[in-house]
C-alpha cells in the first residue's frame, strides 16, 4: 500500500468524520476496520500517527457502546503502540495524555470486557521509561483513581475478570517499577503489597505474568535501603527468588538443613524456571541483594550457593550461565576489604570496567561455543 | 502518602469483592468437605446445609413465593406483626444480655444469649452480623475455634465487610493450623484496613506456618520415597537370588509391585523382617517346627550365608529345651525338611548347606516373609510316621 498525499487527504476527509462514537454504526465499523487493517504496515501506522486528528479519534472509539467498533479501536491501538514514537506521542499530546491512566483504571474493574486488549496497550506504552514515568506521576497524584496497591491486588487474584486473563498487567507493573517512587509505594513496610507477588515466581500458567512479576521484584532489588527488609522474615524475598532456580537434585542433609525452608526436600521432579531470561533475571536480583555486606552475608549463610552450583552444572543457556558463574564466584569468594563492603558504592575505574566487560564477553563466547557443539570432546 | 477516604462507590465495590471472596471460599470448602466427609465430627451440619437454611432467612429474602407454603419464619414474622413483640427488638435485647455476660467472662451464657438473638431471625442484617460475630468471639475465648470460625462466616454472610468477624476468622484459621486459609482471611481484612498491624503480623506468622507445613510434607514424601527405594532394592535382591516368595510367582517379569512387599510382611512373634545389610547379605527371620512336640523355635536373624548346622549346634549343645523330655534333640541327630504346600510334599535339606542354598531350591516358597523348616530326630519312630504321612 502506498500512501500519496492525495490518498491521505482523501482518508482524512472521507473516513475521519466517522471515527467517533456518535457516527452511524455501519459506517463507523467500516471506518475503524479500515484503520485497523492499515496498522498492519509500518507506513500505515506512521500515517495514522501523523498530525493530531486520527489518534484522538481512535482513542474516543475505545469507549464506544458498540462492541465490535470498540474492540477494533483497541486492536488498532495495540498495533499503533508497538511503535515507541506513537506511544510517546499518545502520552505527551494533551488530548490523549490520560488515555493510559483511563484504560488502566478500567482494567482494574472485574467486569471490563477489553481488559486484555487494554493491558497490552498500557504495557506497550510503559515500555519507554519516559512514558512509564509520566503514567507513574499520574498514579502518584493525590486521589488518583488508580493505586499501586489495587494493581497488585488485582494481579494477585488469578481469576479476577472472567473476560480476561490479565497476564499483561504483570508487564505493566514491571514497567512501572522502573520508577523509584513506584517501587517505594509497593514496598510500603506498613502494608502487605510486594509480599503478595512472591508466590508468583512459580506461577506456571503464564510466562508473561510470571516474567512481569519477576521483573518487578528485580526492580525492587535496586532499592538498597530496602534490602534488609526484603531479606527479613517480613518479606523473605530470597526463598522465592531461589526456588525457581532449584532443581530436584538430591542434596546432603547438612547442605539441605541450611537452606531456607521453601527449598528443603524438593521432590526429584522439581522443575526449574523454563525461560533462560527469567532465570537470569532471578539471579541478577540475588546479585543486587549481594551488594550490601549484610545482604551478602545473609545469602551466603542461607547456602544459596548450593542451589546455584547445581544450576551451574545444568545451565545450557550461555547468558544465564554467565550470570550464574558470576553469582557463584561472588558467593564463594572472600569478603572484600573493609571500605569496599558495599559493592554498589565502590567506584570501579574505567579501565577495569572495560577489562571486566571483556572478560565477560570471552566467557560468554566460551559458553556459546560449548552450547553449539554439545557432543564434542571436552577442551583440554 | 495521604490516605484517601473511601468513596461510597469504592466501599460498595469492596463489599461486593469481599462477598464474592467469601462465596468462593465457602464453595471451595464445601467441595473439600464433601470429598472427605465425616473426618471432623465437631459440627455435623455441612456448610451447604447451613447456607441452604440461611437462604430462607427473612434477612435474605427478596420476595415471597405465595404459591408455596410459607417458611415458618415468615409466617412467624407475619403473625408478629399483630403481636406486640418485634423480632428486632428481641434480638437486640439478647445482644445486650450477651454483651453483659461477655464482659463478665461468662462466655457460655453469653453464647446462649447470642444464640437466642440469632433464633429471633430478625430481618436486620447488621444486627445478625453482630450477633454472629459476638458469638464467634465468645466461642473463641472458650477455644472452640471451629464453631467460632463458622460464626465468622455467617457474620460475613450478613455483612461482608464486618471487620471484627474477618479478623476473628483469620485468628481461628491460624489456631486450627489452616495457614493457607488464615492468609486468605488476612488478605480480606487488609482490603478493609491495609495497615492493621495485628493482621499484618498474623499474616507473616501464617505464611511461615504454611511454609513449614509444606516443608514437613515434602520431608515426609522424601522419607517415603527413600523407604520405597529400599523396599525395591530388597525385592530386587530376593528375586535376583532366585528365591520365590509365596504369591510372588506371577510377576517374574514385572517391575515393582507394592503388593509383593506385603508378601514379605512377617507374621512372626517379634515382627522381625527380612533385611539387607551393608555388604548386600540378606538376613531372614526363620522358624523351626518340631512336629513331634508341636513346638517351634524362632531365629530372628539368620544370615543367608550361614548353614543350618551352625545354628543347630548353638541351639542344642547345652541344656536341652524343656519339651525335649527324652533328650533326643542333638545337633548331629537332626534331619531338616521343608514342605511345599501346593504339592503337600516334603523335601530334605542337608544341614551343611547354607540358608541361601535351601531357599534357592526350585520347590522352596517363602510364606509370610518367614522361611520355615521342619526338624525331626534321625531314625525316631515319630520321623517314620511323619514322613509316611507325606508319602516321603
TrEMBL record, chain A:
It holds the Pfam family DUF384. Residues 107-279 form the Protein HGH1 N-terminal domain. Residues 285-338 form the Protein HGH1 C-terminal domain. InterPro entries: ARM-like, ARM-type_fold, Hgh1, Protein_HGH1_C, Protein_HGH1_N. Belongs to the HGH1 family. This is Protein HGH1 homolog. It comes from Lymnaea stagnalis.
Automatic annotation (TrEMBL), chain B:
The keyword Repeat applies. GO terms for biological process: protein folding. It comes from the Eukaryota. CDD domains: CTWD_Cns1. Residues 277-388 form the Cns1/TTC4 wheel domain. Keywords: Repeat, TPR repeat. Belongs to the TTC4 family. This is Cns1/TTC4 wheel domain-containing protein. The lineage of its organism: Eukaryota, Metazoa, Spiralia, Lophotrochozoa, Mollusca.
